[in-house]
Structures are given as C-alpha cells and as structure tokens.
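Here is one chain, start to finish.
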Amino acid sequence: MDNYDIPKITSKELKEALDAGKEFVIIDNRPPAQYREEHIPGAINIHLNTTGDPFERQLTFMSLPADKPVVVYCDCSDESGSLQMASEIRNYRYEIKDVSALILGISQWKGLGYPVAQSES
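Its structure:
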C-alpha cells in the first residue's frame, strides 16, 4: 500500500462532530450499488474505480466546496481506497486543506450502531 500523508478520523470523532453541528463533505467511494444499499447519512458517492479512467472522478472533485472538511470512506479494513481518493482530492484541489480518511470505513460506523441511509437511485 502506498504511504499517503493523509490524517485519519474515527467514526466516533466524526459522529460527535456531526452531532455538534459541524459540516463535512462525506464521500463514499464504494461502487454505486453499495452506496445505494447503505451509506453514512449525507454522504455523496464518488466511486473509486481504480481500473477505469480517473478523469470523471477528478472532474467531480472540482465541484467540492473548499470551505468544509472532507472525509472519505470505503469498506476496506486498511483505508487504502479512502487514502488513495483523499490523496487525489489533495492533488487536484490543493485549496482543500482538511481531507481525512475514516478509519475502518462504514464497517466501523455500522459496528458502533450509527445510522445509515439508503438511496433509490
């Protein structure tokens, strides 16, 4: 795994900050079908397709607000996908300073009993 210089945040820290009213851009980088099935409430889906052309994903990064912290999560046990996408966001949106990866992703979030949402499309 690449050694990205990306800070990590726990599900507990994220939930407490959300409950306190702090606004985040939360990115679920799993495939769209998994996102539709369940995701952290308020999260947007930007799929990290490592075998595809990253251009569309990078264009989506341009629409992210620079004034809110960004948290990226996946469902991998080592945050590798989250760290990769967080690094890409930093590379393409250098003005976004606060980008982190959610430790243990949605698995830890659900394991702590935190709510998940579903999408129809």
